[in-house]
Amino acid sequence: MFEMKTKIRVAIAVTFGMAVLLAQGQADSAGRSILKGAAVEYLYPEQVTVVAGRPSTVAFHFRIAPGLHINSHTPREDYLIPTTFSIPEGAGVRLEEASYPAGTEMTLPIDPSTKLNVYTGEFAIQVRIVAAAGNHLVEAKLRFQACDKSACMPPKTIPVAIDVIGK
Fold it and tell me: N or C: which end of the chain has fewer CB atoms below 10 A?
């Protein structure tokens, strides 16, 4: 009888332990995409050479983590945070214009009647910049709001570090 109770306790402990580990794994993988890992990653370029004083077009490439989306530059609703790219003043490089890709239409299971305009996977923003002569270490910024199918993170701004050489 003692042996049977011990086996049952061990079985319950193992089952409980596995359930806890499984739940933590699901929480981690769900949480990692929303809370711990980078929702959006800047890919390239790291350095560009442009003609000083003249407008030049540069494509900045980004990747959104799997399972997430971000609002496009032109979301359908005013309350949604648009994706924006900026270069700070005084960087030796001026942003003249940014051209954003068209978003993809998406609906969420919670509200299939509402269509969102979002970016997923990889995307590029084409910008026209004018650089002064010289080497400029620029920390541009990408502002976005990342979401999964059931929740959104607070808006975030990430650095987009680039070395711009004006010749």
Answer: N
pTM given for the model: 0.75
Residue 17 or 124, more confident: 124
144: number of Cβ within 10 Å: 25
- CB-based contact 50:129 (threshold 8 Å): yes
In angstroms, the CA 132 to CA 128 distance is 14
Amino acid at 126: Q
- CB–CB of 42/162 below 8 Å? no
pLDDT at position 37 = 72
Q: Give the other-Cβ count within 10 Å of 116's Cβ.
A: 19
From 95, 104, 110, select the one nearest 151 (Cα to Cα).
Answer: 110
Asked if 62 contacts 122 with a C-beta cutoff of 8 angstroms, the reply is: yes
Q: Would you say how long the chain is, in residues?
A: 167
